[in-house]
Amino acid sequence: MSASRAAAQDRPYFDAAHETLEPGALRALQLERLRRVVARAYERSAAYRDLCRAADVAPGDIATPDDLRRLPLLEKAALRDAYPAGLRTCGLDEIIEVHSTSGTTGKPTPIWATRGDMDAWAERNARTMWMVGLRPGDLLQNCFGYGLPTSIGLQYGAQHAGIGVVPAGIGRHELLIDLIVDLGVTAVCTTPSYGLFLADKALERGIDLPRDSRLRVGIFGAEPWPESGRERLAAALGVDAFNEYGMGEFLGPGMAAECPVKRGMHVWSDHLLVECVDPETLEPVGDGERGELVWTSLTSESMAMIRYRSRDISSLTWEPCPCGRTHPRIGRITGRSDDALSIGGLIVFPSQIEEVLVRFDEFANNFCMVVELVDNLDRLTVQVEVRDLAGLTEEARETLAGRIAAGVKTAVGVTPRVELFDPFALPRMTSGQGKTACHRVDDRRPR
Ligand code: ZN
Fold first, then answer.
1. I want to staple 382 with a disulfide (CB 3.0 to 4.6 A). Which of 187, 289, 350, 416 is the partner?
2. How many angstroms separate the alpha carbon of residue 255 from the centre of ligand 1?
3. Ligand 1 centroid distance, CA of 4 (Å)
4. CA of 139 to the centre of ligand 1 (A)
């Protein structure tokens, strides 16, 4: 390796100038870009212009960072209404790639991209790859779905940073495992559940990935995972596990990811502006407090994605990070604002229950929360699928239910009734009827 290449490999940041930009300068850059992107959207998208007019705001009104809040919030329904191109802010002659969200609840949302958008997408993902410690010479296997989903952004980012990619996709797990072992793959990106699945399937063939492969880094996203999952992923795959966040509406990966400090995910804030608001009042919450994330693309040339309500519950902090990056950090996604249940005035997120359940070896991946009004009081019942329930004595079942109830009480302050079920006995989808939420831990958030 030449001396200059070795020096390039040693640099701690992929783009130091932007990643460590002084916070005041970063905020100033955000305001400048916000004004530009709002003016562009207002001029080029009739649908966006209508939203602004309904909110009685025009681009010229955006003079200070606080003026951001005068702009209308963009709801998922507005994207559906604008289908397929109402929020597009450029001509088709500038578009070079189109992706689409899965459209499980209605029409899919097409995501348009210009050459400039593609370059920015690769740049943001390249920073992430560098941040988690990948360098030229590493080999990344991308085990996310290819095609319409946006996970190919991870590949573009790795390649932009000079890192080799195996575009493996998902399915044909025997082949995927062979590739990891035989090619000397050092990093994998996938969902946490699929990562664990691959490790299990490898073990069935006598392949212990931590021992038999060169894997050392794992990037996990597309579904929320609790902190307690980190060790499990590390042990199963032999990797240092990093959390990554992306939404299909913003081209998926490359929005936020963990640095080696692993206390939140840095948002690439020269490209994306994130707010954290109270989902009821829509007012900003304090630094580090729980709220819903609202996202704005500051550099999109192709779509008016301004103040989009993600429904993701997290937190946001501008506290300095020991890694030296100045970009603010979001916390883990701990729920969806439309999944939250109010129980006697307490807001409870399914993810809080999930955090408790995943600590039980007996837990078999699916649970339901049911809230009923009994004697004018909300009563929470947690229905839990349990591995090998038939093999448990009545006494063992009671003990298990009691331990789960105690865990839930500690986590959310409500003592639930706990009912145990066989695996696959509970419905697989959120019912949407009444105050019930059903959750399957390994099948949550397609992007
Ligand atoms: Zn950091």
1. 416
2. 14
3. 26
4. 24
| Consecutive H or E run containing 237 | helix 229-237
Task: Give tens-digit pLDDT for 343-353.
Answer: 877 778 787 88
Give the 3-state secondary structure of residue 291: strand
Q: Which SS3 state, helix, strand or coil, does residue 189 take?
A: strand
User: What's the 46 CA to ligand 1 centre distance in angstroms?
Assistant: 39
Structure confidence at residue 130 (pLDDT):
98
Cα(253) to centroid(ligand 1), Å: 18
pTM value?
A: 0.81
Residue-wise pLDDT tens digits, 340-393: 777 877 778 787 888 899 889 999 878 888 888 888 888 899 999 999 999 999
Centre of ligand 1 from the C-alpha of residue 263, in Å: 7
Task: pLDDT band for 442, please (50, 70, 90 cuts).
Answer: very low
Pairing of strands 308-314, 335-336: antiparallel
For ligand 1, the distance from its centroid to the CA atom of residue 124, given in whole angstroms, is 15
User: What is the whole-number distance in angstroms between the Cα of residue 244 and the centre of ligand 1?
Assistant: 13
- Choose the weakest-confidence range: 25-29, 53-57, 330-334, 392-396: 330-334
Q: How many CA atoms are closer than 13 Å to the CA of 67, on its beta-carbon side?
A: 16
Please tell me the distance between residue 285's alpha carbon and the centre of ligand 1 in angstroms.
22
Pull the structure tokens for residue 96.
Answer: 């070079």
